[in-house]
Write a structure and sequence with these properties.
Helices cover about 25% and strands about 25% of the residues. The chain has about 850 residues and is an alpha+beta fold. The protein folds into four domains: about 210 residues, no CATH class; about 120 residues, Maltose phosphorylase, domain 3; about 110 residues, no CATH class; about 140 residues, Jelly Rolls, CATH 2.60.120. The strands form five sheets. Strands 5, 12, 17, 18, 19, 20, 21, 22, 23, 24 and 25 form an eleven-stranded antiparallel beta sheet that branches. Strands 26, 27, 28, 29, 30, 31, 32 and 33 form an eight-stranded antiparallel beta sheet that branches. It has a seven-stranded antiparallel beta sheet with strand order 4-8-9-10-16-13-14, with no helix packed on it. Strand 9 and strand 10 form a beta hairpin. Helix 8 runs antiparallel to helix 9 and helix 14 packs antiparallel against helix 15. The chain is globular and about 85 Å long. It starts with a strand and ends with a strand. About 50% of the residues are buried.
């Protein structure tokens, strides 16, 4: 091993240091060592660099400004106070991480200079002992440092800073962010595990696990880069104290000025010690980040005591709690896991961040267990739920990812809680770092895409070039160039679960009918000679003495397959989903004769056609056509037609449209569909009124179902308060019946003169007893005022039952306000 010093920090050669880690874990080939050359991932990364990263930096500027203001306060300068947000800096750190990965794609002096400037601002906001948290530094929230570890996200934010610092170092070799991260980590270790400073918990060790897990896996990354065992020990301590030091509700010391809902133990996985947990419960992102940290710490430290819990939780997820898209956290109220087999379609939450957590957890389980079933799950979550989280244009996003829509769902340009778009910014550039792994004289090909890589084995270096148009192409070609002639090593190729009797591992989903003849056998050849190979743990192994120019060809047949769920998933009974390769397909009304939700599909006598799109936003995408189907029209008549399907990740890129993944499989079920609702003939609202309505507008326009093209859309009706400039407004919507609502959203109107997006707004609702109450907004939601999208809020417990809704709007001082459309979503 060799190392170098930089300003008092010791850094280890990554490739050399990884080989010294405990042999329990496979060694991944880092993103900076893999050269992507494909037509699927690389264009997305180029698009991210051109579009998503600049947009994300601009929209996380509030977090940067909070850091800047905190820095000025520490210097004694006069400035405005930072806002009270507990986690907006974490979004900035995630964008830095994503930008750093993209610098490997192409060095960019301007982007590096921007990150270096941000690093200086972060450094300015760091207190002399290493503490970084603008709201408490500036005293804009009435908490002592680490007084409320459950809610204040001091540790969560720093975890994302650590990950950003590691990525920036790997991409550029610069250590400016790492210096900050190291200083902060030393401070956290002192405050949480050593004590002695009266500023923190009266000098006693804080000894609390974070309310939102993230720092654990980030500390492992710090350890891998620096070789400093302190970080690995810290990660282990944070995991091991979880549950044991959890502060119960009746014991927590609360600030006089701030009241927050206390987290129940299961919500943040504090209900049991981590080693004793056997079920996936609570907030899905917190959970999967924790499982990722456990897998990392266990494998690298050699502590196998985490493994039984990890395996049991993983089985619970894939057997009872995962959507076919790889989505986790079906329950909106907690952004988390519900009961077993509760997997709704239209109301599925499946936060984009949770799918990313599913990827991170499963990838680490693969490194730990050397079993391809974990990569299979990660791949499904990546290609389906995760990619669905960002538009093909790279600038619109889904926070939640339903499996069915009646045409009332649209991506947003941003969110008040922007964890999902910033997570997309950092995860897609990491894909190349998940493609290859190695140990001793074994190379594992985990994900397929055109790329080249150099891998150091015990027997010598190996250069490997992969050519494939996966996930649409059935063929993968690998050219091998070893350092030595007749170099002995084993090449392991993943044979995905979707080539077998089911789309993804677990007990939830299986293919219907016999395997098509063309799909009965994958094949592998070496220099044109077919190999007789056996699949073990999802891989086939080719052990031989390799020479330069050896060519391996892998053929993975990709017929269109029909899928069913186990009967215990109630919403999928008598329904079929269609997949091809690792992709879940869906229907959109834009491609078909009727709404996507009114079709009946049978697996019998199907001769689908695969057609690659040559033009438009779907250029390069394989579309499935010619599916024999029937649909029910708005009059209740059943008709025959052909169904066209696109990959789920590609939906909602051509305007608002209904969408569906699970189709009924018989006419009897077709007749039970809610066609009045699907065809837009039902509305919850009986009547509406406003404190003032401009004479040329009508409040009824705001609930007629028209979806605006933008906030400046003048082609549809609207409500405005003109000419009442700056006057508070209230819009009251009386419902036909008491209705259980899971979401309320507003699409704001803005013109070029007197009407502007409001300064603020909130909601009240009238319950069944006739009492008006404040809307219980979910923890991470906010009353956002973003243009060109629906601004949605969700209730804390998943739903409210209302007889009326009141939207209170505070205009900007010199303007009136307007609404194009509101959206009420009924909870099932």
């Amino acid at each position: 091993m060799f190392c170098f010093m930089f300003k008092g920090i010791t850094f280890f050669s990554i490739s050399v240091f990884f080989t010294t880690l405990a042999t329990a874990q496979l060694m991944p080939i880092s993103f900076d060592k893999v050269d992507l050359q494909d037509n699927f991932w690389k264009p997305r990364m180029v698009l991210q660099k051109k579009v998503l990263v600049p947009v994300a930096f601009e929209r996380t500027s509030v977090g940067l400004e909070n850091l800047r203001r905190a820095g000025k306060i520490l210097k004694g300068e006069k400035t405005e106070l930072p806002n009270t947000s507990r986690f907006d800096t974490s979004d900035l750190y995630k964008v830095i991480e994503g930008a750093a990965y993209l610098l490997k794609l192409e060095r960019d002096s301007k982007l590096e200079a921007k990150i270096d400037e941000i690093a200086e601002i972060i450094k300015s906001a760091m207190e002399s002992d290493g503490y970084i948290y603008p709201p408490i530094t500036a005293k804009t929230i009435n908490f002592k440092r680490y007084e409320d570890v459950l809610h204040n996200h001091e540790l969560y934010n720093m975890g994302h800073l650590y990950e950003a610092s590691v990525a920036y170092y790997l991409a550029t070799g610069k250590t400016n962010l790492l210096e900050i991260a190291k200083a902060n980590a030393k401070h956290i270790n002192n405050a949480f595990f050593i004590g002695g400073d009266p500023k923190y918990n009266d000098g006693k060790p804080v000894n609390q696990a974070p309310g939102h897990q993230e720092i654990e896996l980030a500390l492992v990354k710090m350890y891998k880069v620096t070789g400093d065992k302190l970080y690995l020990d810290m990660a282990k301590k944070f995991l091991d104290i979880r549950h044991y030091t959890f502060v119960k509700k009746d014991k927590i010391v609360r600030s006089k000025a701030v009241k927050l809902a206390h987290m129940e133990g299961s919500y943040a996985q504090q209900h049991q010690p981590v080693r004793e947990q056997r079920k996936a419960v609570g907030h899905a992102v917190r959970a999967t980040y924790m499982y990722s940290g456990m897998a990392d710490v266990g494998s690298i430290s050699g502590d196998t005591s985490y493994t039984p819990a990890l395996k049991a939780v993983w089985k619970d997820i894939v057997n009872t709690k995962m959507h076919i898209t790889g989505g986790l956290g079906a329950v909106a109220g907690i952004e988390g896991f519900g009961d077993e087999y509760v997997l709704p379609n239209e109301t599925a939450y499946d936060e984009t961040c949770a799918a990313i957590g599913n990827i991170l957890f499963n990838y680490r389980m693969f490194l730990l267990e050397r079993d391809a079933k974990y990569i299979d799950v990660a791949e499904v979550a990546l290609f389906n739920n995760t990619l669905c989280g960002v538009s093909l244009s790279g600038d619109k996003f889904f926070y939640a990812n339903p499996l069915e829509s009646y045409g009332n769902v649209d991506r947003s340009h941003w969110f008040g809680c922007a964890c999902c778009p910033t997570n997309i910014a950092r995860v897609i550039p990491q894909v190349s770092g998940m493609m290859y792994a190695h140990e001793k004289n074994n190379i594992y090909c985990a994900l397929y895409a055109s790329s080249s890589v150099e891998i150091q084995l015990k027997s010598g270096k190996v250069n490997l070039t992969q050519v494939s148009d996966y996930p649409f192409d059935e063929n993968v070609k690998l050219t091998i160039s070893p350092q030595h002639n007749k170099q002995l090593f084993t090449l392991k190729l993943r044979i995905p679960t979707w080539t077998t009797h089911q789309f993804v591992t677990g007990q939830l989903y299986s293919y219907i009918g016999e395997i098509p003849e063309i799909a009965k056998k994958w094949s592998v050849s070496v220099n044109g000679k077919l190999q007789k190979l056996v699949v073990e743990n999802g891989f086939v192994s080719i052990k031989r003495k390799w020479k330069k120019g050896d060519v391996v060809k892998l053929h993975l047949p990709m017929p269109v397959r029909f899928n069913k769920s186990v009967e215990r998933v109630v919403e999928n009974r008598d329904r079929i989903a269609i997949t091809r390769g690792p992709l879940v397909y869906c229907a959109e009304s834009i491609d078909n004769l009727a709404p996507a939700n009114v079709w009946c599909v049978s697996e019998q006598n199907q001769y689908p056609i695969i057609e690659k799109q040559k033009l438009g936003v779907l250029k390069g995408v394989d579309v499935i056509k010619n599916i024999d189907a029937k649909y029910i029209d708005k009059y209740g008549k059943i008709n025959v037609g052909k169904l066209t399907l696109i990959p789920y990740y590609a939906w909602n890129n051509r305007g608002d449209s209904s969408m569906n993944i699970w189709f009924v499989d018989n006419e009897k079920c077709l007749l039970t569909l809610p066609i009045d609702r699907i065809y837009g003939r039902i509305n919850f609202i009986k009547n509406a009124s406003a404190t003032h309505t401009y004479s040329g507008d009508k409040i009824k326009h705001t609930y007629n179902g028209n979806v605006p093209k933008s906030s400046a859309d003048n082609s549809i009706g609207r409500w405005t308060s003109f000419p009442q400039i700056g006057a508070q407004q209230a819009l009251t919507y009386t419902l036909k019946n008491p209705t259980k609502l899971s979401e309320i959203a507003v699409y704001w109107y803005q013109d070029t003169s007197a009407i502007r997006i409001p300064q603020s707004w909130d909601i009240e609702y009238c319950n069944e007893s006739g009492k008006w109450q404040k809307f219980p907004i979910y923890l991470t939601d906010s009353y956002s005022t973003l243009k060109d999208q629906f601004n949605a809020v969700h209730p804390t417990n998943g739903s409210i039952t209302a007889t009326a809704i009141k939207i209170n709007v505070k205009p900007q001082p010199k303007y009136a306000v307007g609404i194009l459309q509101i959206k009420l979503t009924e909870a099932k």
